[in-house]
Amino acid sequence: MRTVLICHAGDDFDRVGLAAWLASFTELAGIVVLEETAAQKRARVRREIHRVGWLRFLDVLAMRVYQRLALAGRDHAFATAALASMQARYGRVAAAKQLVVSDVNDPAVADFLRRTAPDIVLARCKQLLKKRLIALPRIGCFVLHPGICPEYRNAHGCFWALSQRDLERVGMTLLKVDAGVDTGPVYGYYSYAFDERSESHVVIQYRVVLENLDRLALRLQEIAQGTAPVIDTRHRQSGAWGQPWFTRYLRWQREAARAGAR
Fold this sequence. Notes:
CATH topology: Rossmann fold
Distance between the termini: 49 Å
Shape: globular
Strand order of the largest sheet: 3-2-1-4-5-7-8
């Protein structure tokens, strides 16, 4: 099985750790590294404002500030330790072709995929892939979505499941990319015994990947062999979520504290 990884430049968990993991059981044919521009980041902000309005966007900003001041240190410490554990287990990636672009739908990415001819593309990025790109891998493009689909589609599914007290749906979905937003065929759900009182939602959404690497490798191999079943998600509620809100974070922490005191 030949694979290509798409990831962001600043995320070593993906760019280094997951690349080594992929190379341990597939032929890692290449890595597409996304270095987003300031204009792209501003466009993402405008989309969020359009989606939730200015007042709620202040709630989003408050969460960002709190996360940077109060949570980022522990999140970074976890990411560093997680990367070290993956490197100890899988080693470092041998020389693999790399392409650095700002836009995943840049024609250069399509050319790169035609040249590397992957069976599977693992997309670990915030940008949506267009149909012409999705069609290029022989088997398809897949994502490790931080949330249980279809209930927690789009961004930060673990955060929203925690804040909704939907603890049975705190986890990750392995799904095949289609033209929608996390609406493709589902090939697996994954979780672990998370501790919502000591782990941030960022740690949870990374650790759910780390704790399930063996199961994910097996399922991707089954997908490549054509033996992996697709999970029927019809007749289930579907929801598209956005960036975390500070008010919801406070409610989550309050409810988690009450649950721990019982």
